[in-house]
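Researcher: Here's a chain I'd like modeled. Treat it as a single chain, no partners, no ligands.
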Amino acid sequence: MKNLLIILALYFFGSTSNDVSVTWNESAKLTWADFKGTPNSKSDAVALTASGITFGYSVKTSGDRIIDFTTTVEAHFYPNKSWYIKDKGDAYILAHEQLHFDITELYARKFRAQIEKLVVNQNVKEQMKRLHTTINKAVNETQQRYDEETNHSMNREMQLKWEVEIQKELQKFKNYK
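Model: Modeled as a single isolated chain. Structure tokens:
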């Protein structure tokens, strides 16, 4: 038997795995000190959270047959690509940005749940790659919808609704932390 290790690069705007990152942790919330990037002077935004899901896997083979696999899935925050405008950033805006990171973690959990359902077969690598592509598309769509529906946190009622819903969803997928 031989082990074949394949690590997939992070899917976040062409980032490399060498980027400094913070792994999501429910007991450690983001602070403004985590936002180390240079603000985009052409943006109307007060802050930007860069986050993404890393995914890696290894397959165990016997001859030419895949007989087992293991995976790693993590939600990451990228300090050097995340920024805020110091004189406009407050606790409310930081909570909005934290929820972006929480959404990333939610989709990491959903990804882990989908991977758990996979059965070892000769197409498992392709299946995992498709799941990864699908989950990245879904998390990006949800991030955009979150900003649209909350008007980038300006709609406080909708912001609260999103906070409650994402916490419910994280709890629903708690077995996939």
